[in-house]
Amino acid sequence: xxxxxxxxxxxxxxxxxxxxxxxxxxxxxxxxxxxxxxxxxxxxxxxxxxxxxxxxxxxxxxxxxxxxxxxxxxxxxxxxxxxxxxxxxxxxxxxxxxxxxxxxxxxxxxxxxxxxxxxxxxxxxxxxxxxxxxxxxxxxxxxxxxxxxxxxxxxxxxxxxxxxxxxxxxxxxxxxxxxxxxxxxxxxxxxxxxxxxxxxxxxxxxxxxxxxxxxxxxxxxxxxxxxxxxxxxxxxxxxxxxxxxxxxxxxxxxxxxxxxxxxxxxxxxxxxxxxxxxxxxxxxxxxxxxxxxxxxxxxxxxxxxxxxxxxxxxxxxxxxxxxxxxxxxxx
Length: 331
Known about the structure:
The protein is of the alpha+beta class. It has 9 helices and 16 strands. Strand 2 (35-40) and strand 3 form a beta hairpin.
């Protein structure tokens, strides 16, 4: 498919993005920033519908065409590719936007791995370094570094899991344990999983000509007590991907790396809209929404080596029919 046809499909999808779902027949609903979750306690399952909502600065800011399909299919890809590294909650993927998973109890912290001094949010490692901080989440940082430079070693920088609409907070291991958010045993196991997954993800990204600069992992406790990976993994929403080919050249010039993640949208809000998460966000122009969609799709294709084939059917109708059929009844 040529670029002109792709652009036509993306623009045609702008008024038909999946912004919310109402599938009460699936069970109790919990609405996250991007995902609508339905708990089927009788089966011990959770149905995750990945919407097209875009979240940044801990706020839902817009919808992006086919974003949910990209995220869900990338999570599917990575869960399959990393199941030998760490167990995960995935059971089945019956629809481009839907994943059926084991019901788990999420840990009350997110495990963020970082290999580069970067970011634009107020809680990012670069913003902290720019303010003069030289200890970040318990890690001492060297003097004289510049934005987007590689850290001496990859580091774990956990955050708390904020309630919907609130802000996550960076925290050291000691702070998480002191607040009783995780047990020492769960923290050590989760930290080991995060480090192993990040190492695998970085090596796979390098094979594709990409840099996996940082990423976020969510983990939960399965019914058998096992710590497993949940939510998503190595997607453009949870990870920062850069092109490797011109990284050093752009770093030397002081230019931002060419990215495949939603950092493009964050930069628009900061540089053009002057927005960092406080108050109502400015509307995101359609041209930026389309460009963001292109980047999400490109990330899928570059990371997986597979073409992305969007399902253009009405997502509400398609998802409801697919899940009703799986339940053996009508929506």
